[in-house]
UniProtKB/TrEMBL annotation:
Its main location: membrane. One of its GO terms (cellular component) is membrane. Coiled coil: none annotated. The chain crosses the membrane at residues 12-32, 101-125, 137-155, 161-182, 213-234, 240-259. This is Rhomboid family intramembrane serine protease. The lineage of its organism: Bacteria, Pseudomonadati, Pseudomonadota, Alphaproteobacteria, Hyphomicrobiales.
Length: 271
């Protein structure tokens, strides 16, 4: 009898190269920050994070005194002094630092923060890369991150606390994946059922009638509400920038049909 051929070992995580590189960058940056002094790390965050008040002063014609007055009126007494000091430090140069609209996505507040975003990036970024390629995946991620930052700044124009994290980009990937992840399976020309990333993109009409899509969207919006306003059991060590999530999600939902290389599912079947 002929010996059986050796069994090939499948990798535990079969991630596209683009996803692996992104995860290595996000985790690597956070790991490097562990070796920085507190002062250096603080400066890094201030220089590369989104701070809406900095934008409205540099580009919106708002005066620094107006930001200070808003802080005195809207911040609790026990935090007004440190907030005023932070505002004076951040707004001293009155520089806009427009690059922060994208660089904030590479920074995270804790290991839990970066690991959670990494898990969701792997889960929803992988089918996007396999469907669209690395280039379009990066374009989609960047646009979602930028729109998340812009929407956050629009909703919080006088905010002086830095906003960081890849959640806006990840939310855009989630929205993009919802166009095809829940589409009905069909037979591939190779004689097998299609993988989710191989299926035709749903139309808006199909999506609003697809129960799985509606459940997914409902859970996503509910989770954002819970973690933004309820913050159960103290699981998060900082407030959630739900505005960045919404901005990134809407961007991914709108831009994906433009980037998608596959055609949409026909709205009706011709006789």
């Amino acid at each position: 009898m002929s010996p059986q051929p050796p069994r090939l070992r499948e990798p535990i995580l079969n991630l596209p190269a683009a996803i692996s590189v992104c995860l290595a960058v996000l985790i690597g940056i956070h790991a490097i920050r562990m070796f920085l002094s507190d002062e250096t790390d603080f400066t890094l965050i201030i220089d590369w994070a989104v701070i809406p008040a900095r934008w409205v002063v540099a580009f919106g014609g708002v005066q620094v005194d107006e930001i200070m007055r808003s802080l005195r009126e809207g911040v609790p007494e026990d935090t007004v002094t440190p907030m005023m000091a932070l505002a004076q430090y951040v707004l001293a140069s009155q520089e806009g630092r427009p690059w922060t609209v994208l660089t904030y996505a590479f920074l995270h507040g804790s290991w839990a923060h970066v690991l959670i975003n990494s898990v969701w990036l792997a889960a929803f970024g992988t089918p996007i890369v396999r469907r669209c390629g690395a280039g379009r995946f990066l374009i989609l991620s960047a646009i979602s991150a930028v729109c998340g930052a812009v929407f956050y700044a629009f909703m919080n124009p006088f905010q002086v606390l830095p906003m960081i994290g890849a959640s806006g980009a990840v939310s855009g990937l989630m929205a993009a994946a919802s166009w095809f992840m829940f589409a009905p399976a069909s037979w591939h020309w190779e004689g097998r059922l299609t993988q989710p990333h191989e299926r035709p993109r749903e139309t808006l009409g199909h999506m609003v009638r697809n129960r799985q899509v509606l459940i997914f969207l409902g859970i996503w919006f509910a989770a954002n509400y819970v973690f933004a306003f309820v913050q159960p059991l103290g699981l998060m060590d900082a407030s959630i920038a739900w505005e960045a999530h919404i901005g990134g999600f809407l961007a991914g939902l709108v831009i994906f049909p433009v980037l998608d290389p596959l055609p949409a599912r026909p709205s009706r079947i011709s006789a």
